[in-house]
């Protein structure tokens, strides 16, 4: 019931007009969104850099419905990459393929992604493709592979530990030298696609962590680049102290250097944990979302798992 209501609100123009004018809503949302402009996102990245933390920047938006919207989103991301270069911030870029036209036309999406990768490659930067829900998982991996086949090695993928298929995907893509952000996953998926129990999701997260770290060690332990833009092969995208502790312990056990994996967290969440990892010598990267589409983004994040509503609210008061 709550999930359906939140999804309804995310699409309702009247609700957006009303809610976005309520100061407390933006106060909550702005704790997790770095503003509505590139300038605000660059400012957030620069502040993170001053703390010794890198960024990955996300121009908000997904599931575009027209070619023009997809082109506008592509140009916004190109502008972002230019600003990262111009302002010399230690950050790369995360993209969603549904924002770039995947649902409209796969060829259009390919064209838009290649424009982004070409500019990022020119500036020696990196692009991470976010994984969305399972109806487009195969297409997402197909686009990744098509781009890499064209010579774009500066592209990686997010992988979700709650999907049964992820172990097979990780093993196959590691052999293609893909760099991963490992996350638990936040979409509502059917039980034939994803583990329904948290303990199983956590166990698979740890299993995939081991697979990635073992592969990395066996292939020379690729490290984060000196400028912080090119990540190592494994990135643990989680705020779960137990998952982070497992990764640290396992890396130490096998002799994987600290700078051969990184910890990634969302903007505005668990700054204490960010600082702890950084102080211990582990690279930390923060996912920085920004843009005018913050309302539907924020509501959909709550709708994907209604428990996130309390998670976000509680973190608003956790400093």
Strand order of the largest sheet: 1-2-3-4-5-6-7-8
The assigned structural class equals alpha/beta
Q: What is the quaternary state of this protein? A: single chain
The CATH top-level class label of the largest domain: Alpha Beta
Q: How many extended strands?
A: 8
Rg calc:
18 Å
List low-confidence stretches: none
Tally the structural domains: 2
Shape from CA axes? globular
According to CATH, what is the topology of the largest domain?
A: TIM Barrel
> What percentage of residues falls in helices of 4 or more residues?
40-55%
What is the count of helical runs? 13
Strand % is 5-15%
Beginning-to-end CA distance, first to last residue = 31 Å
Secondary structure layout plus pairing:
Layout: H1 2-11, H2 13-19, H3 23-29, H4 38-50, E1 54-59, H5 67-87, E2 91-95, H6 106-122, E3 127-129, H7 137-149, E4 155-160, H8 166-174, E5 180-183, H9 198-218, E6 234-237, H10 241-254, E7 262-266, H11 271-279, E8 284-290, H12 294-304, H13 307-316
Parallel strand pairs: 1-2, 1-8, 2-3, 3-4, 4-5, 5-6, 6-7, 7-8
Give short descriptive properties of this protein.
alpha/beta, 319 residues, 2 domains, globular, TIM Barrel, 8-stranded parallel beta barrel, 13 helices
Structure description:
This protein is of the alpha/beta class and 319 residues long. The protein folds into two domains: 1-33 and 302-319, no CATH class; 35-290, TIM Barrel. It is 51% helix and 13% strand. The chain contains 13 helices and eight strands. It has an eight-stranded parallel β-barrel with strand order 1-2-3-4-5-6-7-8, surrounded by eight helices. Helix 9 (198-218) links the parallel strand 5 (180-183) and strand 6. The longest helix has 21 residues, at 67-87. The radius of gyration is 18 Å and the shape is globular. The two termini are 31 Å apart. The model has no long low-confidence stretch (mean pLDDT 90).
